[in-house]
Amino acid sequence: MTRPLLAVDAPSLYFRAFHGIPEKAAQTEGGEPVNAIRGFLDMIAQLVRTRRPDRLVCALDADWRPAWRVELVPSYKAHRVAHGAVEEVPASLERQVPVLLEVLAAVGIPAFGVPGYEADDVLGTLAATQAAPVEVVSGDRDLFQLVDDARGTRLLYCGRGVAKLEDADEALVQAKYGVPARFYADFAAMRGDASDGLPGVAGVGEKTAARLIERYGGIAEILAALDDPASGFAPGVRTKLDAGREYLSRALPVCLVALDVKLPDFEPALPREPRDPEALLALAERWNLAGSARRLVDALAG
Predict the structure, then answer these.
(1) What is the rounded average pLDDT of the residues 224-243?
(2) CB neighbour burial string for 235-261, b if at least 16 within 10 angstroms, e if fewer
């Protein structure tokens, strides 16, 4: 069996690690928290052991709230703005991210973002351009849209943690949400997503959105059907969709993950030994990461 590329949503995992491990349980001798770093490294080690990839890439948010998405839907992630264009991130997590990136570089795991795009868009492009199979690792539901059995793309959804992964193929997405994976973005735009500041169409919830997609297809087909008096919409639903027509035309591009981002050059092959063992050792000693670093190195060597 061909071994997969593991495409990791790094912010999704390090936020989960940060909130899942108490700061006091993972500190340096000087009391500096390293809970996000330790948790992230242990998650990657577990994924490598259990999924047996031969390639591994971590995607980053070079732009967590791209201007082109905000221009389409101004409320997009607005509730998570600290000031200006800066995301509200706990200070003790923010200080750990540069150290985590140094560790990944010393190990030899590529981690990058692309200006103007979110980690989701990097993951989407990896899924679209890299040799199959591709397993995307994230706790972000938006990435269900990437699931494609024919192409060999799965989502390892870690909304409940890496230990309780949902290994999502097209059947799982259909069973979970009542829509094909290829229409998940249409579904999310109609239903709305409070975590991303997307209001959805007023009065259209998950069940109605799923029924509309089942009957008509995606948003383009639904809006086209609105112009046909014989299309069979219930009067109340037609009124709601008519009122939300402009929102839907703007929200769908926001919800769709980019598949054609220009990626930097990178080497995805799984590093069987650390690229810079001396740097890794120094980082492990400085930041009290010896156990997590060893577990990751052992998993990669295996």
Answers:
(1) 92
(2) eebeebbeebeebbebbbebbbbbeeb
204 vs 223: CA distance, rounded Å: 14
Q: Considering only CA atoms, which of 163, 216, 213 is closest in space to residue 191?
A: 213
Residue 90: other Cβ atoms inside 10 A:
14
The predicted-structure confidence for 244-281, as pLDDT tens digits, reads as follows 999 999 999 999 999 999 999 999 999 999 999 999 99
pLDDT in tens, 41-66: 999 999 999 999 999 999 999 999 99
Q: Average pLDDT of the chain?
A: 96
Residue length, the chain?
A: 302
Task: Look up residue 227 and give its amino acid.
Answer: D
pLDDT category at 1 given cuts 50, 70, 90 is low
- Does residue 85 have a pLDDT over 90? no
**In this structure, what token pair is assigned to residue 110?**
């590529």
- The answer to whether residues 198 and 73 touch, using CB atoms and an 8 Å cutoff, is yes
Residues 92 and 85: their CA atoms lie apart, in Å, by 19
Amino acid, res. 151 = R
Report how far residue 61's alpha carbon sits from residue 77's, in angstroms, rounded to the nearest whole number: 14
- For the residues of 215-258, what is the DSSP string, one character each? HH-SHHHHHHHHT-TTS---HHHHHHHHHTHHHHHHHHHHHSPP
Decide if 204 contacts 191 (C-beta within 8 A): yes
> What pTM was computed for the model?
0.96
Strands of the chain, DSSP E: 5-9, 55-59, 81-83, 86-87, 111-112, 134-138, 153-157, 166-168
Query: Which amino acid, residue 58?
Result: C
